[in-house]
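A quick word before the example. In earlier lectures we treated sequence and structure as two separate objects. From today on, think of them as two lines of the same record. Here is Ketoreductase (KR) domain-containing protein written that way.
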Amino acid sequence: MTSYLVTGASRGIGLAMVEKLLQNPSNFVIAAARHPNRSEDLQSLRTKYGDERLTTLILDYADPASTTAAAERASMLLPNGLDYLVSNAGVALQSGETFDTIDLEVFEEELRINTIAPVRVVRAFLPLVRKGKGRKVVFITSRLGSLELAPNFGALSVTYSTTKAALNFIARRWAPVLKQEGIATVLIHPGWVETDMGDELTDWMKDHLPERRKISVDQSATDCLKVIQDSKCENAIKLYSHDGTTVPL
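And the structure line, produced from the sequence above:
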């Protein structure tokens, strides 16, 4: 079976990815989240597909110890390694704040969860990825982290955007290093999606980019998984939008 581990899998895009992956009987999925047992949707999927197709792990990006524990547990579940690692979890804690009102302590927390934690997660699971056949590391990021597009967004989600810009930079610097081992690094903007995070942007988008429309989590997940499958192992990785087009970095 092809193995996938998806973080932030209890709701939104992560949950939709898990559900899509399970529709292929050749896939085994590990759904990692802060509180997987509280997610009725995840538990329903476990009942439907069984433990031989889906298992859950506790993985909280704000808690480094949970990453270590999750990687140890995954190593027992995946003796042949992990094919695809999808780092999807993230937070936007102060989307509506201006440069004058940003809470810097909250900003630090966003950096820890959105930028530092994904590095910790990838490092923890790399030994398993190295043993796998798919050998892909995926970061779900955002076009808000594009330096070229930054002037277009003003103060919209400025701290979240900064954390994603830093994540994009790390991924692009890490990619050629991982390529030497035959591991592909993938950066994906999932689109403006009908999630709690996406809904916070509705008013700004209506005023500034009225031509854009939100997409469903189902469409985003389907599109992102296709991008993941189509991606290649390369040095100068691009930031792909969910539809396969590239976003300026």
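Notice the following. The CA atoms of residues 108 and 171 lie 20 Å apart. We will return to this example when we discuss secondary structure assignment.
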